[in-house]
Design brief:
- The complex is a heterodimer of chains A (171) and B (802).
- Chain A is of the alpha+beta class.
- Chain A is 34% helix and 15% strand.
- Chain B starts with 5 loop residues before the first strand and ends in a 5-residue tail after the last helix.
- Chain B is globular.
- Chain B has 19 helices and 29 strands.
- In chain B, β24 and β25 form a beta hairpin.
- Classes of the chains: A alpha+beta (171), B alpha+beta (802).
Chain lengths: 171, 802
């Protein structure tokens, strides 16, 4: 099949490669480039295990063609932080928000994008935000705890960065 | 160790292991050491593995549930780009017959070929395999294999399959009856029903479920022709069991076959069994002398992963005039699917009917089970495996019986519980319960729910046209199944011991090798906690190795909530042997009698002489130097154990749900879900909590959302995650947990197993709550899953809701 040249910037590194037009971004990342953090759990854009960020937005890499991502900046779980110490990565460990870990990269990448837009969500909102990510192990409660706790940490970090005092939640 | 009763309504708080002293580490809710690799994408799952010259395999599977294969034409596929090889059943020159590992007297053993040659018996039956250079090429070529079928009538449900006019799936068996099995006392039970003051009866359907580990099954096989070594990485819950079975299936010597389970993304039973796929991957790699990778698509997992449950049951309960249960009679037709999977015959028999006494003192029980071949994928263990089905029958009948005798269901249960002073308690269905205190979990759950207040609130709400209900589930689970001699008598073709090696390195660090194989349960953490406690060695100085037949001498794997009870026991025994050997070395070096050398907190000390002491790490160093050890002793400090417990362990508890049902829409909303579990001692309460949460989510999934549905042609109509409702975050309520602790006497840790508890407990808690809510409409039962439509119909068929 004819291949097409594309450029992908993954976790800050630019790559030039040739892909079949039908190739899914998740397979390009995993099989061609070795970014195996995003996992494949279904073929129907339901489970979210393959979630990465494309130009800052969480997308399911099993429903994006690699050619659609031409020129895009992709962040996978491997690139979310330098030392695996993003507040979400820490909170998932502290709150036991993972068991087998297969859904976790996608879960964290979705949550990271969500918390950018919604820094102070309540538990119900967190559950809604994670509708597109299925976990079969945890029953979700500790995932919600982890996202809630990460939001608090990020809120505190932002406040500290602004040189301000941490404010109590508005509601 | 005896952990305390705990109350975690706000959740267990994790602790950084660095903040815990070694002597306190057992029982601490420390964060898991597995997690840094898992949250950063570093963990390696099977499909992550790449090898030089690796090829990809795809399966050609039947599109029909039942058909004769007329012709398989692979010529077009063979011509396609990148195709390396195409194989059909004719190309195999190995036994290629998947074995069944649990026999029953009446069991009809049928052939289970890894590639179907003349007939396909379910939709996922593989007809051919294609190996190609690239993943997409393999799937393209698989699509190009042309198979001509002559369709046959198909049957999906056990009751229909056992009818005289049903299409016969295995002609050599003569009918679709896989087995006919019974337990208990038929005569005494008949008499109990004749003498009963009143009886209740329910027809209960425990639907087929798809396990849905989020990681699909996968295998990477690599063959080294010069040494005849065949190496497999695969999604396995039990690599040693897979190795033993596969060595026969593909006729490759066991010692030249190595199986490693890398990181495994959930199993829930579905990765116990030996499937055709991994054998075919191995055969292809061997034939081609190149690495071969096969990874199931989600669609494939839905039509090939062994499914769970699938019972059609009639249950009857006999009662006296005081509301005491006097007898239980159960008849079940169990769906076995198209072939007998690895442990399939044990699930609807010994793992099911032996639990029918529940938490109750029932004088007599009689149960018959007919296993039925059908045209659905093989049915085998799925989280709970037989025990959820039993608990469902018992707890639904108890709810119905309480209503019949006009007692509150909580008090009806209390009256019929096995009393706390009756343990060990022998049931009429061959179990001896180790320990328990059922009233305590009931009381705790009632307190958490504010049960009495709820009943008043429920009454008031009904007057306002709102329908609230509370459902209780007093569950019991048997796990850590053992001893081997007993399971052998019951038909197991394997022992159910567990094995470990505890090995000191000369520098004083420790590696633990154990034959269980975790896939999300946090074994690296909990086993290291056990060893740190026993040896008094720092937690960080202990490494745990699992899931590799080359590294771990032997093992039976992780399933049936056995790892802590049986694997943990094996680890403790090895650690104790190490301590004893170390004591002799220490005594020798300290010039004392071994009987005078005490071991505590990682140190040996001559009794009464505190200055004459050495650490176990020093002893380890001395044992490898071997310059000065007792004359009759071998160097080194390590020990191997095979732990075969004297009996099962029996976790128990009370789960309870409060729901509100909208009679106009059939919608169900959770107000509360409380779980009071007694899993014996807890090695790590945070991990216990996680197991309980996850189990409950799967149990609620069964109660409300999930079902593998088949049409009249036995075609799966819920064939993707868009059609099969795996619960999403908003489907699962906030769960309040608490625990009581009664230690098991059957293993050195006093643990009971926790992996399946929630899945066993939850379905009937939810269904009982809905039925309780709808009591004013006369609703006595609704079939799972309780979809809005089914609930609405149940209300309206009883003339309600208008």
């Amino acid at each position: 099949m004819t291949e097409q040249d594309i450029t992908l910037t993954v976790n800050g590194t630019e790559h030039e490669l040739s892909v079949e037009p039908r190739e899914l971004l998740v397979h390009t990342l995993r099989d061609d480039m070795g970014y195996t953090g995003p996992n494949v759990g279904c073929e129907t854009t339901m489970c979210g295990a393959c979630t990465v960020q494309m130009d800052g937005d969480a997308v399911k890499a099993c429903t994006v063609l690699a050619v659609q991502a031409d020129g895009a900046e992709i962040t996978t779980i491997e690139g979310l932080s330098d030392d695996g110490d993003h507040p979400l990565q820490e909170s998932f460990q502290e709150e036991h928000g993972l068991q087998c870990g297969y859904c976790t990269p996608g879960m964290i990448m979705t949550a990271a994008d969500y918390l950018e837009d919604e820094p102070d969500p309540d538990r119900e909102e967190i559950r809604e935000a994670l509708e597109g990510n299925i976990c079969r192990c945890t029953g979700y409660q500790n995932i919600v705890n982890a996202v809630e706790s990460a939001a608090e940490k990020m809120h505190a970090e932002d406040a500290a960065a602004d040189g301000g005092v941490i404010e109590e939640g508005g509601d | 160790m005896a952990t305390e009763e705990t109350d975690h309504e706000d959740g267990v708080q994790s602790i950084d292991p660095d903040d815990v002293d070694t002597e306190d580490i057992l029982g601490s809710a420390i964060e898991r050491r597995e997690d840094p690799a898992l949250v950063s994408g570093e963990a390696e799952y099977t499909d992550d593995i790449q090898k030089p010259e690796m090829t990809h395999m795809a399966m050609v599977r039947s599109q029909y549930a039942h058909a004769e294969i007329e012709e398989v034409d692979t010529s077009a596929a063979e011509e396609m780009d990148g195709v390396v090889a195409v194989y059909t059943a004719d190309d195999l020159d190995v036994p290629g017959n998947l074995p069944v590992g649990w026999l029953l007297d009446s069991l009809e053993q049928v052939n289970h070929p890894i590639l179907a040659g003349d007939r396909v018996r379910y939709q996922g039956d593989a007809v051919a395999i294609v190996v190609a250079e690239e993943r997409y090429q393999a799937h393209d070529a698989a699509d190009a294999v042309d198979v001509e079928y002559e369709r046959l009538d198909a049957v999906a449900h056990p009751g229909e399959a056992l009818d005289d006019d049903a299409p016969v799936i295995h002609e050599e068996a003569g009918s679709n009856q896989a087995f006919d099995w019974e337990i208990g006392d038929q005569e005494a039970t008949k008499q109990a029903f004749e003498e009963a003051e009143t009886t209740v009866s329910l027809d209960l359907h425990n639907q087929l479920l798809i396990p849905n580990a989020i990681e699909p099954r996968a295998t990477v096989a690599d063959y080294h022709p010069r040494t005849d070594e065949l190496e497999l990485d695969m999604t396995s819950q039990n690599p040693h069991v897979h190795r033993l079975l596969m060595s026969g299936v593909i006729d490759h010597p066991e010692h030249k076959l190595s199986i490693r389970a890398p990181e495994v993304g959930g199993g829930f039973g579905s990765k116990i069994h030996h499937y055709a796929d991994e054998a075919l991957t191995a055969l292809a790699a061997k034939d081609l002398e190149r690495p071969v990778k096969w990874t199931a698509t989600r669609t494939e997992t839905y039509i090939t992963d062994a499914q769970g449950r699938g019972h059609e049951t009639t249950g009857e309960m006999a009662l006296d005039e005081d509301g005491n249960i006097t007898g239980l009679r159960v008849h079940t037709k169990a769906n076995m699917g198209a072939y007998l999977s690895t442990f399939a015959p044990s699930i609807p028999t010994y793992l099911y009917a032996t639990l029918l006494s529940g938490q109750y003192e029932i004088p007599t029980i009689y149960c018959t089970v007919e296993g039925a071949f059908t045209n659905v994928p093989p049915v085998d263990a799925y989280r709970g495996a037989g025990r959820p089905e039993a608990s469902y029958v018992v707890e639904r009948l108890v709810r119905q019986a309480a209503r019949e005798v006009d007692m509150d269901p909580a008090e009806f249960r209390r009256q019929n519980f096995v009393p706390g002073d009756a343990f060990p308690y022998e049931t009429p269905v061959a179990m001896e319960y180790d320990s328990g205190d059922y009233e305590k979990t009931l009381d705790r759950a009632k307190e958490m729910l504010d049960y009495e207040e709820f009943r008043e609130r429920q009454e008031q709400a009904r007057e306002d046209g709102r329908y609230l209900g509370v459902g209780l589930s007093a569950y019991i689970e048997a796990c850590g199944i053992a001893p081997s001699e007993l399971v052998g008598e019951l038909g197991a073709q394997a022992g159910l011991w567990e094995s470990s090696v505890v090995r000191f390195q000369p520098s004083g660090t420790v590696t633990v090798y154990v034959g269980t194989s975790g896939h999300g349960q946090g074994h690296d953490t909990t086993y290291a906690q056990i060893v740190a406690d026993k040896l008094g060695v720092e937690y960080d100085d202990i490494e745990v190795e699992e899931g590799d037949t080359d590294e771990i001498p032997q093992g039976m794997g992780t399933y049936g909530s056995r790892s802590a009870a049986v694997g943990g026991g094996a680890i403790v025994e090895s650690a104790e042997k190490v301590i004893e050997k170390g004591r002799k070395i220490a005594a020798h070096q300290l010039e004392a009698d071994p009987e005078d050398v005490e071991f505590e907190n990682g140190g040996y000390q001559v009794a009464g002489a505190p200055d004459r002491s050495m650490t176990i790490q020093d002893v380890a160093g001395a044992s490898y130097l071997a310059h000065d050890i007792p004359d009759d002793m071998e160097p080194g400090l390590e020990a191997t154990s095979f732990f075969d417990p004297e009996n099962f362990v029996f976790p128990f508890g009370m789960h309870a749900a409060i729901v509100e049902v909208d009679p106009d829409t059939g919608e169900i909303e959770f107000e509360e879900y409380v779980a009071v579990d007694d899993v014996g001692n807890q090695i790590n309460p945070k991990i216990v909590e996680g197991q309980i949460h996850g189990g409950i989510a799967q149990g609620i999934g069964q109660a409300l959302y999930e079902s593998a549905e088949y049409d009249d042609n036995a075609q799966l109509t819920t064939g993707s995650m868009q059609d099969y409702a795996v619960p999403k975050p908003s489907h699962i309520p906030e769960i309040k947990t608490a625990s009581t602790v009664t230690e098991s006497p059957h293993n050195p840790l006093g643990v009971k197993g926790v992996g399946e508890a929630g899945t066993i407990a939850a379905p009937q808690a939810v269904v009982n709550a809905v039925v309780d809510a709808l009591e004013p409409f006369g609703v006595e039962d609704i079939e799972m899953p309780l979809t809005n439509e089914r609930v609405w119909r149940a209300i309206h068929e009883n003339g309600g809701g208008d």
